[in-house]
Structure formats: structure tokens, C-alpha cells
Design a protein that fits this description.
heterodimer; A: mainly beta; 0% helix; 58% strand; globular; B: mainly beta; 4-stranded antiparallel β-sheet; 11 strands
Chain lengths: 111, 116
């Protein structure tokens, strides 16, 4: 089975940096995704990691360590519009495409 | 279409009634997924289609839930004898298919189902 853990809530200040952690225990691994979800809206894709290391995309970066079952999403230069839930999701191994989502981390950005 | 379209956006029904939720995926996407999301939770997997066939329906909670995708494009999630516990947002996502390395899922805005 799949087990994904991430903090329930976080608060950070506008302009600062925040790191959202995700740990997972899965029967197989074929990629980890981060999605952003504003209240009442659809999840939108942020990043994808399948190999160890850091992937950078503008203000957002995502890191993966497969041996530790660990990922983080790093948000720099926080803006008020970054207030949202951030979902960590893991895809199982092989050609199987099922993705399991964590419960999400609700980030509040304050002035 | 430009994105994943779900209709209706909101559905209110009475306990015991039958409902259908529709998903129109991104044109050309062969994979389609249904999820259920309750307040404060992440999306919970229900079923995954590759083309017309259900590749994995292990997330369907019971036999009141059924989904079809007869022509490999539009999908319908059907819920019989609705119960109050079925109230949630039902999300649909599509992706290019298993042959693509990232095979990113793109989500629709969801259908908010309320069972009274």
C-alpha cells in the first residue's frame, strides 16, 4: 500500500521562504508530484521528481530522496496568492499509473 | 477542449436517488481518473481508465458506484441509492497516457455533490 505524510498546516510571512515536507512509504515508486490547490478549485500541477535531487522552476523547487522516502517543496519570495493547499502525490512502479495523494498542507501566507 | 470539463459543477440530491457525473477530458488524453475529495483531505482515488477499459477500479467504495468510458473520451461516474456519506467533491483528471514519462494528470474543477 501507499502511505504519505505531510504537515496539516503551515504559516509563513510574505517575502519569506517556506519548505513543505513529504515522507512516503510505498510498495513501488515511479515518480512524485506536487500540486497546488486553492480553496474550491482544482489541483494544478507544480512539479515532478523521479530521480534524486532538486528540480527548480521559478520560485518553486522540489527535492527528492528515494532512499529516504522524502521530498520537499520549497517556495521562495512568498506572495499572498501562494496561500493554498499543497498536495504531495506518489505514483506506483512499472507501467501502472495510479497516483496516491497525501492529505495536503494548508499554507497561509501572512503580511 | 482546452481543459478537463466536469458537469454539473454542483449537484444536490436526496438520499436514495441516482446521480450521474460527467467528465470531458483534454482532447487526445487516453488516461482518465476519478477521485473523491472531502473537506480538508487530499483526493482519494476511485477508478482509472486507459482508453475504454477500467485499468483499476479498486478505489470504488462499493457496488453503488460505477463508471464508464464507452468511446475512450467522455466518462460518466454513476452513483446509485445515494447516501449522505457520498457528499464530497468528485474530481476528474486526464493524462496523455502510460507511454509518456511524466504522464501528468490535469484536473477538472470538480462536481460538488450534496446528498440531503
Amino acid at each position: 500500500g501507499q502511505n504519505i505524510d505531510q504537515p496539516t498546516e503551515m504559516t509563513a510571512t510574505e517575502g519569506a521562504i517556506v519548505q513543505i515536507n513529504c515522507t512516503y512509504q510505498t510498495s513501488g515508486f515511479n515518480g512524485l508530484f506536487w500540486y497546488q490547490q486553492h480553496a474550491g478549485e482544482a489541483p494544478t500541477f507544480l512539479s515532478y521528481n523521479v530521480l534524486d535531487g532538486l528540480e527548480e522552476k521559478g520560485r518553486f523547487s522540489s527535492f527528492l530522496s528515494r532512499s529516504k522516502g522524502y521530498s520537499y517543496l520549497l517556495l521562495k519570495e512568498l506572495q499572498m496568492k501562494d496561500s493554498a493547499s499543497y498536495l504531495c502525490a506518489v505514483r506506483g512502479s512499472g507501467g501502472y499509473q495510479k497516483v496516491t495523494f497525501g492529505t495536503g498542507t494548508k499554507l497561509q501566507v501572512i503580511p | 477542449g482546452a481543459g478537463v470539463s466536469q458537469t454539473p459543477s454542483n449537484k444536490v440530491t436526496e438520499k436514495g436517488k441516482y446521480v450521474e457525473l460527467r467528465c470531458d477530458p483534454i482532447s487526445g488524453h487516453t488516461a482518465l481518473y476519478w477521485y473523491r475529495q472531502s473537506l480538508g483531505q487530499g483526493p482519494e482515488f476511485l477508478i482509472y481508465f486507459q482508453g475504454t477499459g477500467a485499468a483499476d477500479d479498486s478505489g470504488l467504495p462499493n457496488d453503488r458506484f460505477f463508471a464508464v468510458r464507452p468511446e475512450g473520451s467522455v466518462s460518466t461516474l454513476k452513483i446509485q441509492r445515494t447516501e449522505r456519506g457520498d457528499s464530497a467533491v468528485y474530481l476528474c483528471a486526464s493524462s496523455p497516457g502510460g507511454g509518456y514519462p511524466k504522464n501528468i494528470q490535469y484536473f477538472g474543477a470538480g462536481t460538488r455533490l450534496s446528498v440531503l
